[in-house]
Write a structure and sequence with these properties.
Shape of chain A: globular
CATH architecture of the largest domain in chain A: 3-Layer(aba) Sandwich
Number of helices of chain B: 20
Radius of gyration of chain B: 24 Å
Radius of gyration of chain A: 21 Å
Shape of chain B: globular
Helix content of chain B: over 70%
Number of domains of chain B: 2
Number of helices of chain A: 11
Strand content of chain B: under 5%
Strand content of chain A: 25-35%
CATH superfamily of the largest domain in chain A: P-loop containing nucleotide triphosphate hydrolases
Oligomer: heterodimer
Order of helices and strands of chain B: HHHHHHHHHHHHHHHHHHHEEH
Largest sheet of chain B: 2 strands, antiparallel
Strand order of the largest sheet of chain A: 6-7-8-3-9-10
Distance between the termini of chain B: 29 Å
Chain lengths: 293, 400
């Protein structure tokens, strides 16, 4: 199974949001990282077939998804950035309605709803109105909806926003287990969401995919560029306007800063083990033309 | 559960809409009740009218006509010539109401034979008048013209129907007024607009478009489900209107007298060419109202599929309705110039009085097609076009 984008562009009025994106995805988890306004949601919507590109094509196994139509949409599960509900629908209503939209058989829909409701921890709340759900519960319901028809392609836009740390870990585990022979595209700006589970991570900015690597490759990219060093608190405000700081913590009455830099940023700074978050900051905030973002 | 049942629930079977329907039922009941109450005094007055009318019913009687004329002259000098105003002014005097109604009937008999000058340019009526016009066309050698065919057909049908008879159709006439006058368009079509408006627009305003448009059944089957739910909802609202006005129109006097009379005995249907009894007109009128409300609902569906909000959908739908009503209310010069736009506009085509009360016809490729038949074709064509447009719209719809 292959999902390929060929020179996909999209504009809103005079602003070009996607600038000729071409890429190919097979089975596995793909992370899509990028700052706000990078064009992630637009790209996700085009892949979910709820938005049409201005030019270019999206091909599913070599066929244009618009030509494939219903059969393509039958293979995707989509969690939009903002999950919406009808005011008088219960959680079960919402999932049953989703099942009807996906054309699922009644018995299978019932079984899957039970499985997924237990899996995302909503079994006891299915009879409650969706509108009364907390933000995290609504998100989990959205995730259950996306997984309902066991889709071949799972497209998730900011799936973990509103989830607490335990729920996020649980979500990652569900996705990891699910992605064995499927394509999962996970768009987020929370780096740790994809660090553990994504086979490939796409870094997106200004409407284009700037890098596609594994988490390990990104980390190797910035080896020797992450520093830990002491700094007086009074210098910190001024310093962070000049440097890319990935973390600050108080230690022994002084501040310890974690800095992304090609050279030793402050005397006594020592090199640290880089993370994907450091790589993200390096690519989007440190490289020439991006400092001080 | 099928998509249709979910869509029906979203549109109709939810607490908000059911509450609206309950309020509408109360409103329609009041409309039915008050229209009957203002028709004639209390139950005693109606019973007296029914008893008196029993001896007046039947073919034209010149002695009764003279008697009625005398009473009419006296009463019209005091209350004016409008029969409804007279009835309301003398609600507790059934004998006067009967005489006034018989006087109106006498005029209809006169019209049947001679027509009423100036006769309607579109629908000339009256045996002698039609014969004169036909003879005129024959003298000009226009026997092959559509006018000739139309007038000949009208004369033939008029002669078949025969001279109208007098009948006590007081309560039925009231019912048909409730079903077939412009007030109905405000009472029925305006609330219907608000019931149907969310059908597609709600998906945009609620953000559910993301889920729907990305799903297998979100481009075609959902349109079918939504259109069917709109049909069901409009039928439900219209049935509510029909049932409430029927029930509460007859309930105060507990009588269906006149149900088997010819429809030509009802003033608004005196020129009708349908050989129907009153109950048949009631069935046809109810079916017509359901049909036209369904077509109007489909039009709202198309508008809703193109709009971002329910308010916008309702606004545009009501604007179309009111523009139609406005055009139909223009003088004859304007309406004749606008032709089919008025004939098949919502204001006219939804009124059973307009459709079944005359014998207007159209020349379609040399063939005479009556207004009701033409209206069915035009409305069916509109319904198919808007349904097709809605399917096309959903196919290319996006979330932004």
């Amino acid at each position: 199974m292959e999902l390929r984008l060929e020179a996909v562009t999209k504009s809103y009025k005079s602003k070009q949001v996607l600038k000729g994106i071409s890429l190919s995805m097979g089975t596995g988890v793909y992370g899509l990282l990028g700052p706000n306004g990078a064009g992630k949601t637009t790209l996700i919507r085009i892949l979910a077939d709820v938005l049409r590109p201005a030019s270019g094509r999206v091909l599913y196994d070599g066929k244009d998804i618009h030509a494939v139509g219903d059969e393509y949409r039958a293979k995707i599960g989509y969690l939009p950035q903002d999950v919406s509900f009808y005011g008088d629908f219960t959680g079960r209503d919402y999932l049953e309605y989703s099942a009807a939209l996906k054309g699922m058989e009644k018995a299978r829909a019932k079984r899957r709803i039970e499985e997924l409701a237990r899996s995302v921890g909503l079994w006891d709340d299915l009879k409650r109105k969706c509108a009364a759900y907390s933000g995290g519960m609504q998100r989990r319901l959205g995730i259950a909806q996306a997984l309902l028809d066991d889709p071949e392609i799972l497209i998730l836009d900011e799936p973990t926003s509103g989830l607490d740390p335990y729920e996020r870990i649980k979500f990652r585990n569900i996705i990891s287990a699910y992605a064995k022979d499927r394509l999962v595209l996970l768009s987020t700006h929370i780096v740790s969401d994809v660090e553990q589970i994504a086979a490939q991570i796409m870094m997106m900015e200004h409407g284009g995919i700037q890098h596609i690597h594994t988490a390990g490759e990104y980390i190797r990219m910035i080896e020797g560029r992450v520093w830990l060093g002491p700094m007086p608190a009074e210098q910190l405000v001024d310093y962070q306007n000049r440097a890319v700081i990935s973390n600050v913590r108080a230690k022994d009455g002084r501040m310890e800063v974690r800095v992304i830099s090609d050279t030793q940023p402050v005397p006594d700074a020592i090199q640290a083990v880089p993370t994907l978050e450091d790589a993200y900051l390096y690519l989007f905030n440190y490289l020439p033309g991006k400092a001080g973002r | 559960m099928s998509l249709f049942r979910f869509e029906l629930r979203k549109l109709l079977l939810n607490r908000r809409t059911l509450l609206l329907l309950a309020c509408l039922f109360a409103l329609y009941s009041v409309v039915g009740l008050t229209s009957t109450i203002f028709l004639i005094g209390g139950n005693d007055s109606y019973r007296a009218y029914e008893d008196l009318a029993a001896s007046w019913e039947g073919p034209f009687d010149s002695e009764k006509a003279v008697e009625a004329e005398k009473v009419y002259q006296e009463v019209s000098a005091r209350y004016g010539t409008d029969a409804r105003m007279i009835s309301r002014s003398v609600k507790d005097q059934p004998e006067i109401i009967l005489a006034v109604n018989y006087h109106a009937y006498t005029e209809r008999v006169e019209e049947y034979w001679n027509g009423t000058p100036p006769e309607s340019a579109e629908e000339p009526y009256g045996v002698a008048l039609l014969q004169g016009k036909i003879a005129g066309l024959e003298r000009q050698g226009k026997q092959d013209s559509s006018d000739y065919r139309e007038l000949s057909a009208a004369l033939e049908r008029l002669e078949e129907l025969g001279e109208p008879e007098f009948a006590n159709i007081l309560l039925w006439e009231n019912l048909f007024n409730n079903w077939g006058e412009h007030m109905m368009q405000f009472l029925l079509f305006v609330p219907l607009t608000f019931v149907i408006a969310p059908v597609f627009a709600v998906e945009r305003s609620s953000g559910m478009d993301n889920l729907i448009l990305s799903s297998r059944n979100g481009r075609r089957k959902i349109v079918t489900a939504k259109l069917l739910s709109a049909l069901a909802a409009s039928t439900a609202v219209t049935t509510l209107y029909l049932a409430a006005t029927f029930l509460f129109g007859f309930l105060p006097h507990g009588s269906f007298h006149g149900w088997d009379s010819a429809i030509q005995s009802i003033p608004a249907y005196a020129r009708s060419m349908f050989p129907w009894r009153v109950w048949q007109l009631a069935v046809a009128g109810a079916a017509w109202l359901v049909f036209t409300s369904v077509v109007y609902s489909l039009m709202i569906c198309l508008i809703s599929s193109r709009m971002k909000s329910q308010t916008g959908t309702a606004g545009v739908s009501l604007a179309i309705l009111f523009v139609n009503v406005g055009l139909a209310a223009m003088g004859d010069t304007v309406t004749q110039r606008l032709g089919a736009l008025v004939d098949f506009g919502l204001a006219n085509v939804t009124l059973m009085k307009e459709v079944f009360g005359g014998y207007k016809g159209f020349d379609v490729f040399g063939a005479y097609v009556s207004y009701p038949v033409m209206a069915v074709f035009v409305l069916a064509a509109i319904a198919i076009a808007v349904a097709f447009g809605t399917y096309l719209g959903q196919k290319s719809r996006t979330v932004v």
